Amino acid sequence: MNSKTLGYIVKRVILAIVTVWVVITVTFFVMHAVPGGPFLSEKAVSPEVQAALEAKYGLDKPLMQQYLDYLTGIVTKFDFGPSIKQRGRDVITIIATGMAVSAKLGVIAAIIALIFGILLGSCAALNRNTIIDRVIMVVSTAFVSMPSFIMGTFLLTLFSVKLHILPANGDAAGGLILPVITLSLSPMSYITRLTKSSMLDVLGQDYIRTAKAKGVSKWGIVFKHALKNSLIPVITYVGPMLAYIVTGSLVVEKIFSVPGIGRAFVNSITNRDYPLIMGTTIVLSVLIVIANLVSDIMYKIVDPRINLE
User: pLDDT tens digit string along 146-192?
Assistant: First the structure.
């Protein structure tokens, strides 16, 4: 690794840290600016009890002191404080429990989207202007334009309610099949379109014609030459794809009752559990920032000719 590449990585890491700090700061002050309070839903809370609850959770301190304490806890101990509604549980414990399920769901959906998207895109490019190409493009366009919550509701109604083939509950055996399909369809379709466009451009390059002239087989050209260079736009999309899967899973997990971070986040909003809302928002933002950072660095690994700035 040369000094220029190392300098680029250091700069991107610093930018990622600043981005995370901005997310923490904005999330903290926005949540504290929301009208009302986390204890409004409590029944018959007297002023004395309200004051005791605020003191317990540190809400009686000046706002800047609360911010500094919150930021210090995150930086030094990765501590987001206790949950207000789930008494006796820390926010980080709730997030870790949910992420164990959400991570499995997201990783499987991402792998399926990448594998089938690249395969279908390559197939469409190699069969340009044929019925295979047209069918793949029509289906991929339909899936890209359909929001995940609509697709999830449709699959739930079809396979669980009407056909009784797959369970509707994410806790049941096979319960993750429909959520995974729901989360993977849109990014898979987008990757299909990216791969096709990129591969068509690569197949028209001079070195591909040279390889054909040397007698390299069709599949040798595809896998040894065209596919690798066609993957650069796909790698560009990996970061946004993970962001889509993470944010999309918030609603999808609620639809299919998957016990992941998405369901915990939605419930925290309805319950006005401010520490859990802030902690979940920050953790998901950090994951998105890391995903984009890794995809940026992967450019150089896949194609050393890329000039990092």
Answer: 888 888 889 999 998 888 888 888 777 788 899 999 999 999 999 99
Q: Mind listing the pLDDT tens digit for each residue in 89-125? A: 888 888 888 888 888 888 899 999 999 999 898 888 8
| Greater model confidence, 52 or 238 | 238
Output the 3-class SS for 177-246.
Answer: HHHHHHHHHHHHHHHHHHHHHHHHHHHCCHHHHHHHHCCCCHHHHHHHHHHHHHHHHHHHHHHHHHHHHH
Which is nearest to 250 in space by CA: 230, 237, 264?
264
Environment class of 266 (CB within 10 Å of its CB; exposed 0-12, middle 13-18, buried 19+): middle
Answer for the pair 234, 196: CB distance below 8 angstroms, yes or no: no
Phi then psi for 57, rounded to 5 degrees? -100, 10
Q: Mean pLDDT, to the nearest integer, of 208-231?
A: 74
Residue 221 identity: I
Report which of 193, 237, 202 is spatially closest to residue 222, judged by C-alpha positions.
202
Beta-bridged to residue 90, according to DSSP, are 82
